[in-house]
Amino acid sequence: FNPDILFSVDSPDFTLRVAERVKKINSNVKVVHYVAPQVWIWREGRIKNFKKFVDHMLLLFNFEKKYFDNENIPNTFVGHPLLENDTNSKVELSSLINENKKIISIFAGSRKSETNILLPILCDFVKLMNEKFKNYSFFFHATETNKETIVNFLKNKSLNDVQVISDENIKSKILSSSVFAVAKSGTISLEICNAKVASIIIYKINMINYLIMKFLVKVKFANIINIINKKEVIPELLQGECNAKEIFNSVNYLLGHPDLLKLQINNVNKTINDIKSDTLSSEKAASILSQYLQS
User: Fold this and answer.
1) Distance (Å, rounded) from C-alpha 272 to C-alpha 196?
2) Cα gap 260→262, rounded to integer Å
3) Measured CA angle at 288 (ends 283, 292), to 5 deg
4) Stated pTM of the model
5) Burial grade of 120 (CB within 10 A; 0-12, 13-18, 19 or more)
């Protein structure tokens, strides 16, 4: 076992344990890790341990540099791949959409634990929208894994103008054609931002997990755009506020104030431009790996 490089990606609780073990077996192996652990959210003390076995950390966000610079861990800002994607997918949607209706994209999450909690809330939200408006179509963005679960859940809910989509190209096109999005907190928010669509962020977990998380987490907000700006650029409805009525009130209010939608999109665009890399993330990462291979 004598590789030149161990290139680990994300999932730090697993991949970095493997990297540490490999480094102990062969100290000559260079460990390069892509997607730095989010030490700016919690467990910042982990960095001191990373220093023992990580040779280079590849960062998605430029504000992460200071954390690794402080411990003299070599690092490079490579940018987030989700901010590179072209949202103008060439997909024909005429069979899916009604041109007389505006689109609202809904993201209930990908994990079963998330959809179990959020789907009932989001269904009740759509029902409230159905009762007040007749000019909106609602698209639940699913994965191939959970599409059937979402379809079956919606089947007997007597909701109007609701569809479930899982094809990546169709989802991208539907999102870019949306006037608004309601999304579970997570990386999907960056895709929504990149598509220049206004949104609100929702999240709800069981109370015990929430209290544990609240104790450990250092940041005030759930969404990366809000964390960077240290203020609520994108509205967040978390825990007790994550209910159908609050979501309906927030969406209804924002849709009724186009100036606020425009302001959100403008503020988000400014933030996105500030955190985007000037090169492709994959190209920058490949360049770093190449340097280690040649050294």
Assistant:
1) 10
2) 5
3) 140
4) 0.89
5) middle
